[in-house]
Amino acid sequence: MGNILKKKSVRYDKQYNNKIKARHAQSKIFDREYKKKRASIKANYCQKLKQQEELDKSISLSSLKPIDLRTEEGKKRRHQNTTRPKHENENLRDTIRKRELENRRLQSLSISYSNSLSSYEEENNRKEKENDHEIISPSKLLIDSMSPGAKKRASLRLMDKKSELSRGIITNVRQKLGINLSNQYFPPSSQAPQHQQLFI
Description:
200 residues
């Protein structure tokens, strides 16, 4: 008897499905309304299922003892307390890494600066030594050792012959001996002795 009823229900379902397919093919309005109705039924079913899940969850929470609730809260709190230091440690590591990179950059800059400074000082010392050991020409040494009166007499003689000298020689005399033949000569001392003035 049961098998007969099952066979009849299967046969009826097939016939019903065939009729529905035929209606879908014949009428677009029926097809649109049918799909809308099926979507509404599915949405209502999903909403009822969600409400039932929320109800079951609230019932399970209400059935818990206060000790169980405190345990759950303790787990959440411990999780928060463990995750917060992890984030702080990661931030500190990033900060330390950035500071180390900055320190390395500053150290390299200071090393390069000290190297350039030492090379500059060495160059200055070398130039000073070269200036100290610069060879003085005999003519310059002779002029420096002469008395002011003798320098004046020599300068006056050169000024008398200035027209016979080329411009390059006049420039060399001014640069190497410190005597400017273009101007009137004034001795370094304010007043030459009287016995030297007699020989001029």
